[in-house]
User: Fold this.
Amino acid sequence: MRHLIDIKELSVDEIDELIKVANDIIANKEKYSHKCDGKKLATLFFEPSTRTRLSFEAAMLELGGNVLGFSESSSSSVSKGESVADTIRVVGCYSDIIVMRHPKEGAPLVASEKSTVPIINAGDGGHNHPTQTLTDILTISREKGRLNNLTIGLCGDLKFGRTVHSLATAMSRYSGIKFILISPDELKIPEYIKKNVLEKNNIEYLETKDIEEYLPELDILYMTRVQKERFFNEDDYVRLKDYYILNKAKLEKAKKDLSILHPLPRVNEINTDVDDDPRARYFEQALCGKYIRMALILKLLEIK
Ligand code: CP
Assistant:
């Protein structure tokens, strides 16, 4: 039985295969519409979500399966003091696969050690978000036709932004990748990502506060929200929340074939005047999330 807790658990070949299946699903939806007949997916969300939870639910429904679960822990027996481990053992009696989001880093890993069914990490604190990374990689692959030889700007909250940590980890396994890490000093990418991921894999990177200086070099600009829920101090959040606001005027110096991505939700970091720019690909990215999650469900349930 396989779980997906960290993107590192998938080899490059497995990610390539997931992309291939997702592209086949996009081209041949009907072929997949009964693949999960009789199967149930449980979504256990101890933190809010729109895209991840609903795209997993839509994915399972489009595969012919069913869904159950909760979208806030207050409506589950966790509010009475039940542990994550007990919750997982019980939900495994009612479902074939579990998708779990939790504010505590490592909670899905603990869950996977107790589970009788595959567990998918749908985001654990400021740590990892592997299925967002699969979404991002499918989007990049479809936009660029390649996953190597790319200059990728990661911009915003690189400290708490779990999608950034997982994406940097995944893309560091491809060749010719260069990262421009754009953040205020307080929100720089964690040292462990620099040392254990970027430097270990000889990935070229530089850190800067200045989005405009490096914008003309980028093939991908990955914007992120400042993660209000991870701050200990409201004043710090208020000071940093609008540090970067991408708008149409700033994009004048960017490449014509830049792809602007964002895991969403956005707050102010991308002005809505960017949405009509053909380089804005974040809503297409959200759609990719459903298809790659369909491919992942099939893989973890070992359905051909
Ligand atoms: N990108 C993402 O994880 O969005 P949600 O928080 O809405 O699931």
Notes: Residues 49-52, 123, 132, 263-265 surround phosphoric acid mono(formamide)ester (CB under 6 Å). The longest strand covers residues 40-45.
